[in-house]
Each structure stands twice: as structure tokens, then as C-alpha cells.
Amino acid sequence: MSAILRSSKIVSVLLIFVLVSGCSWFGGKKSSSQARGDSRSLEVPPELTQPKTSDSMTIPVVTPEQAGYGPRPADQQTAVVDTALLPRPAGARVVQVGDLRWAELEGRPETIWQEAQGFFRSLGFEVSYEDAQVGILETNWLSNRSYRNIGFFKSLFGGLTVTGLRDRYRIRLERTDDPAITRMYLVHQGLIEDVIEDNAGENINRLWRWRPNDPELEAEVLQRFLVFRGLDEKQAEEVTAPQPRVERAVLRDVSGGQLVVVNDTFARTWRRVGVAIDRLGLIVDDRNRSEGLYYLSLSDDFIEQHKDDSGVLKKWFGGDDEKKASKKFVLKLEERGETTTVSLHDQNGQLDNSSTAKMLNEQLYQQLH
Asked: What are phi and psi of 241, to 5 degrees?
């Protein structure tokens, strides 16, 4: 009797188990992975240990609102930042007058400043001088070949690279009337290596001398900067494409000195003169745009660059006139109808007619015409 009772209990338990789980056995539906047996745990060979698991690789569930397909709650809208999957190309407008050009970029000066630093470091340059107050950043000297063969520019310009060349760049930023637009000037300075052998060919001296700034190289690096900021390569090429050259300035002798007469407005001439000063490597001690004045000094680099010019800058390198020489000039811009005059004055406000001033006037004319 006890055996029959025990058997009936077992049958009852089995019956209850079948009834409870029947819904999953017969009424449920298995996924394709369950049907294939993929739900089994990973079998690890005996000689290996079971890998540790965590939530670090778990793919989170993202709601449509979080994915950007729907509105965010009001309390989260202030936390939205520019984190699009692909960067939105930053707008750029390049103004070109002859060989002089500058860019007007979407972005505040503080942002462009940081981008310029990162851009030049990405090319291998180091920032050798910077003054955030006046918006000037200057790189160190770098071999021409070491930074030009990078990315798609290697195919475009790789054949033009030459050993024995060094380059450095200066960036100058200006605020505009629109707080969201920054004006940027980029200028190039270059060196070329001279190899000098003695008559016997036993001793070789390598000297670096200045070479003219390269407007095409300026355009190339500006183009690369625009691509670095997110502009499409074709767009960057289009906005930096050279324009037909038009004669825009003349150098005139007047009583007591010289004038460079520029066939352009004061505002545009002011900007062009700023680029010319950067290219020549002169130092801007101060400036007053409302009065049209640049207060300039001759840099050591400028003097070194021109010390061998015939009859020019002799006073800096010996002779009785050295003590009388002044390294400082006042550059004055005056609007006269549809033209703007550019003239060099001494510290007393008189038109400077020295040999150095004449050389500077010629250099300015070459940049502005």
C-alpha cells in the first residue's frame, strides 16, 4: 500500500511539472538561435581558463530620443553639444588680391587659435613664438620635405619637394565686426641651403640663406588648414585657387621721399599692408587703425636677410653711421579718393628718405602691386 501511495505521489509531481512547463514546451516559440542550439555557453578547452565577463562590452539600448530621432526632454536640451557623427564643414571665404590672400573663417578667434596650433603640430612643426593678445603665432623652421608629403597632398605636391629647403609660417588672427567670423592671415618665410666647396674640394661649408616667400606654398598650407578644419578637399581647392593678377600699386618719388599709391580702399589696403609686413618679417610694435598707423621695427631676421644687399643696411654692420641709425619707422596709410597712399616716416613724423626707407618702400611695393 505504501508503495502504491509513493508511486502515485511521483506521478502527481510529474503531472504538475508537465502542466506548469507545458506552455513553454508547446505554446512558446523558440528563436532561431535557440533552435540552432546557439544559446549554449562557450565551451573552453581544458588547458584554457574561462574568460571573465562584464558589462563593458554590452551594447546599450538607445531610445529614439537618445539617438537624435526625437525631441529631448526639456531638462536635457541645455546639455546638447556639437557631437555629430561627421563634423559639419566649417565655412570659409578666402579674399585674394594679387599674391596676397587672407581667410575669413566661421569661428571665434579663441577656437581658430587652438585649431592653428593643432594643425601645425600635426605637420610636425613646433610653435616657437606666440602672443595671444595680438593674435600672432609663429612656427619653428622645418625641412620642406618632412611636412609636404602628407596625405593626399603627397600625390598633388610630392613631386615639387626639394631637399635643402626650410620653411616656417606665421599666423595672425583678427576679430571682425561679426563675433562668429575670424580673419586669418597665413604667411610663409623660407631658407635655402648653399653648399660651398674650396678650390681643392676638401672642405665643404653649408650655409642657409633667405629665399623669397612662396605665395603658392602659402595657398597650399592654407588649403590644408581648411581641410583640417573639416572643409571638403575640392571646396578647399576652389576657395584658394589663384586669381588673375591685376596691377594695383605704383611707387612714386615725391618731395622728401617716396609713396606707394595703392588703387584700393583704406580698409582693404590696411589688411594687405598687414600681410606684407608679416611676409617681410618686420615687427609691429603698435598700430592705430583709426589713424592709419603702423609702428614698425626691423627684426634681426630682416637685417640678416638683407645685410648683403648692395648699399643697403650698411649702417647696421659697421661704419660711423651705425650709431645714428634707427631701427624704428612709422608706416602711415591715408585714403585719398579711390586710392590709398602708404608712406614711411621717421620718429619725428617726417617722410623718411634714407636708403633703408627706400629699400623698405621697394619691398612694400613688390608686395602690394
From this structure: -65, 140
Cell numbers at residue 217, please? 606654398
What SS3 state is found at 71? coil
Residues 143 and 273 in one domain: no
Q: Kindly report the number of other CB atoms within 10 A of residue 94's CB atom.
A: 20
Write down the mean pLDDT value for the chain. Answer: 74
CATH code where residue 316 lies: 3.30.310.170
Tell whether 220 and 141 lie within a shared domain.
Answer: yes
Q: Cα separations (Å) of 214 from 50, 65, 91, 219? A: 64, 52, 25, 9
Q: Tell me: do 204 and 296 sit in the same domain.
A: no
Judge if 221 and 126 occupy the same domain: yes
Query: Residue 293: CB partners within 8 Å, gap ≥ 6?
Result: 287, 330, 331, 332, 333
Q: Report, in angstroms and rounded to the nearest whole number, the Rg of the chain calculated over CA atoms.
A: 36
Select from 239, 268, 297 the last residue of a domain.
239
Residue 156 φ then ψ, to 5°: -80, -40
- SS3 (DSSP) at 261: strand
289 shares a domain with 234:
no
Torsion angles phi and psi, residue 61, rounded to 5: -80, 125
Q: Are residues 235 and 272 both part of a single domain?
A: no
Q: Global pTM?
A: 0.57
Looking at the predicted structure, is the pLDDT value of residue 28 above 70? Answer: no
Number of domain units in the chain: 2
Residue type, 128: S
Domain extent for 157 = 92-239
> Which of 60-74, 261-275, 295-309, 349-363 comes out lowest in average pLDDT?
60-74
Q: What's the CA gap between 366 and 99, in Å, rounded?
A: 10
* Domain contains 303: yes
b/e map of 114-130 (b: 16 or more CB within 10 Å)?
ebbbebbeebebeeeeb
What is the distance between the alpha carbons of residues 127 and 64, in angstroms, rounded to a whole number?
45
Q: Which has more pLDDT, 60 or 246?
A: 246
